[in-house]
Design goal:
Strand order of the largest sheet: 2-1-3-4-5
Largest sheet: 5 strands, mixed
Strand content: 15-25%
Order of helices and strands: HHEHEHHHEEEH
Oligomer: single chain
Distance between the termini: 14 Å
Radius of gyration: 19 Å
């Protein structure tokens, strides 16, 4: 879900090395645009997200199904997140999706728990400035032709606007869940 690049150079001193590295970093930023969230080695993706939330004085919550709290855990890794992180819900059962995420029974009956409607309902239910809802099939079982293992929907609510995305991840259960969390952090950013 993430790619980390390190640009190095050999030179007589640090100043000369930085001079050699600068055009390469500039080219990488040009090619990858907003996908570059930092040039500092010690800044993580979740750290960049929390920094944005703090800088913009936005609160955040998570509603997770297939990721089982991994998204909230990544955010909570960051010191100072208590200023912005308000709540994290794991809504694994359909009953929890109805009660906590506000998804109507008819919606679950018609579209299922793994659907854009589930992600959208969860994101819109939050009482924070930002909310990400994640639902999907991490496998190894439970998939079908229509909804294969690796299908994940995410709803990201930011200050009144909600965007829902469909993802298709590959790998085993752990890899699908980890990749989904990185995608959710990227979507939040």
């Amino acid at each position: 879900g993430e790619v980390h690049l390190r640009v190095t150079a050999r030179a007589a001193d640090e100043k000369e090395a930085r001079k050699k590295v600068k055009p390469v970093v500039k080219e990488l930023k040009s090619r990858f645009g907003s996908a570059v969230y930092t040039t500092e080695e010690d800044v993580t993706l979740e750290g960049a997200v929390v920094d944005l939330l703090l800088a913009n004085e936005l609160t955040v919550s998570t509603i997770e199904s297939c990721t089982g709290g991994m998204l909230a855990a990544r955010l909570i890794n960051i010191p100072g997140v208590s200023e912005v992180f308000k709540s994290g819900y794991i809504t694994y059962s359909n009953k929890a999706k109805r009660k906590i995420a506000g998804v109507k029974k008819g919606t679950l009956d018609k579209y299922g728990a793994v659907s854009p409607q589930m992600a959208l309902g969860g994101a819109e239910r939050s009482q924070t400035d930002v909310c990400v809802a994640v639902t999907g099939l991490a496998g190894p079982g439970g998939g079908s032709q229509e909804k294969p293992v690796g299908l994940v929907y995410m709803g990201c609510y930011v200050c009144g606007t909600t965007q829902v995305k469909e993802f298709h991840f590959n790998g085993n259960r752990a890899k699908i869940r980890e990749t989904a969390v990185s995608a959710a952090l990227t979507m939040m950013r």
